[in-house]
Amino acid sequence: MSPSALRRPLLVRTRDDLQRELSVLRGTGGALALVPTMGSLHEGHLSLMDRARDLADLSVASVFVNPLQFGPGEDLERYPRRLERDFELAAQRGIDLVFAPDPEIMYPDGPPQVRVEPGLLGERLCGRFRPGHFQGVLAVVVKLFGLVRPDVAVFGRKDFQQTVLIRRAVHDLELGVEIEVAPLVRASDGLAMSSRNVHLTPPERREAVGIFRGLIAGQEAFRKGERSGPSIVESFSAVVSGYPAVRLQYAEIVDPETLEPEEEVSEASVLAVAAHCGDVRLIDNIVLGAEEPDPRISHSR
Ligand code: AMP
């Protein structure tokens, strides 16, 4: 019988409680999966938890809004926080343990002095507009790996650049954690689910779908035989320009491992974009040669 069937899941908020409960869990044996999140859970996060339970006997989710990955003037203070609800949702999905530390617990000596330098991968795409962001992400992910010592950690395809960096960090630093990347979960109209979507006004929410429709247009151009990166980006931008509330920050087609922009694209190339809608920053991406995420989603206006 799985430990989940025997135990009620637990919410722990301190390092001591985390270590005590981890050792109890570990005593039951089996591989352990970690799902790091910033909380305000939605179906995207919950799909990672389902994946974690498929992959391992024991599952831990973390809920921590990591100050180190927010730049000055970004939305750290107003980032949605709903811990009680998050815990209930994670429990319903069969997670064994939820670790939700406050910043003083996570960083008891203040921000860590020694950091992982993301290098060029952290300067591309979002890195150009969010200096220090990926260094902050790697700081917390490496710390969580150290605290939880998972066998596998599950991340979402929604944060495509983050998954590339984390895989690379695990490889370069021999962190010994298997990295699983789960598919991007979309709302029924195609908008990528995000905790930040709650800040969209109803008109902004309606327009935000333009990002997904643009991605589909880019993918269609590829299917019809277009292989020029800039032309496919043009197809994307032409659709997005029909949604004035969406202000594009960047749209690039990149190699899925190096993140280098591609002039000549292939099936594996990724069209990655960021845009503001009202004062909410949204990111999204699509693999040009991948199956259409949901054929029922219409992409005409
Ligand atoms: P966050 O709480 O936004 O930091 O996200 C925590 C994890 O959930 C990251 O690995 C994200 O990539 C993943 N995630 C967030 N939104 C989605 C989504 N719509 N589909 C799949 N994974 C997601």
What does the model show?
- The chain has 301 residues and is of the alpha/beta class.
- It folds into two domains: 3-182, HUPs (Rossmann fold), CATH 3.40.50.620; 195-287, Pantoate-beta-alanine ligase, C-terminal domain (Pantoate--beta-alanine Ligase, Chain: A,domain 2, 2-Layer Sandwich).
- It is 36% helix and 18% strand.
- The chain is built from nine helices and nine strands.
- The chain has helices at 3-6, 15-27, 43-55, 83-92, 103-106, 133-148, 160-173, 202-223, 229-240; strands at 10-12, 32-37, 58-63, 97-99, 152-156, 178-182, 246-254, 270-277, 280-287.
- Strand 8 and strand 9 (280-287) form a beta hairpin.
- Helix 6 (133-148) crosses helix 7 and helix 8 (202-223) packs antiparallel against helix 9 (229-240).
- It is globular and about 55 Å long.
- It binds adenosine monophosphate (AMP).
- The site of adenosine monophosphate has 18 residues, from helix 3 and strand 5.
